[in-house]
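Hi U.,

Before I forget, here's the chain from the pilot set. I'm dumping it here mostly so it's searchable later in email.
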Amino acid sequence: MKINNPAFNYDGSGCRYSNYRQTDPRIADYINEALGTAKTILNVGAGAGSYEPENHYVIAVEPSVKMRLQRLANKKYPAIIGTVDLIPFDDDAFDASMAILTIHHWQNIAKGLREIKRVTRDKIIIMTFDPDALDNFWNAKYFKDVVEVEKSRYPKINDIIEILGLKSEVKHIPIPLDCKDGFQEAYYGRPEAFLNKDVRLSQSAWGFISVETENLLVKKLADDLASGELDRLYGHYRTAPAFTCALRLIIAFKQIF
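Structure:
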């Protein structure tokens, strides 16, 4: 599937985003460990402020007015209006930069990554999903059209690393059963959540398929939940304490000590 513009219009549909997309502390631990002792941090595509570490100096850049307003409602510091392809800061301005579940919205990924590299002295932290692993989750059966959208938007992990041109580590991040951040895989053991329209609105991929297709996909899920077919096939996920699928944390080192 070809997507001409991968950016989701949060100003049109994101008014309740932060009700469902919140910092999960167990995922945050991986991000905070990666940031280490960085004193100044840039958060690009910062959204409503999830995963911004406390007790650090964080500057957020966010293009969506609704996301910026939700930051204020969540008692986060205001964000600068801007996009990743033109970051309004000097070279090496920050100890570290973070881009958390945002890269699939960028129209020019290579330019955005080069900009992050330009303004960062030490570490670049990128959390994203590996498109090559998206089929390893039951929603590939129920939401095939949605998964195809995601495959077309998420860059391959090796491509990100190659563009950055830096020594990098890639961590596979386990998702807890009661994950507080409502991306798709967060509901691996709670499939009923997808029947909630607001949950789907907080997952941008649904915005790239027609309402008719969405209704058909959700009806199939609802029917299989009612009949017990989903639990027959995937019920074991309901008690799995964690699920490691496509969530990745890339840690790129601009300076090697």
